Structure prediction request, 108 residues.
Amino acid sequence: MGCKVFGIDIAPNKIENARQFYKDHPLKENINLIAADIYKVQPEDIDKLYLVIMRDTIEHIPNQEVFLANLKKFLKPGEKIFFAFPLWRMPFGGHQQVCESKVLANMP
Prediction:
């Protein structure tokens, strides 16, 4: 739709996977992928955002209270943040604690 998009991940291989996935996208020039620790990205490093979408990611970010307190620095005034969480009772709910999962631990 012509939106400018920023993707940030601490894992360089995840950013490389995204680059490969979008390499032939007709609007690839609007996609900015950054391999960095989110705590080292400064608001002046990227454009101010209209919307932040965090789908099944917040549970992977350490020091979430610090992150959330600073997230608004990346937004234009009055704009939005969308959070989605993996459902705990789904097969991969709580996936960050996969070693403790009774569902996955009992699978053959």
Remarks:
- The chain has two domains: 1-42, 48-108.
- Residues 1-42 form one domain.
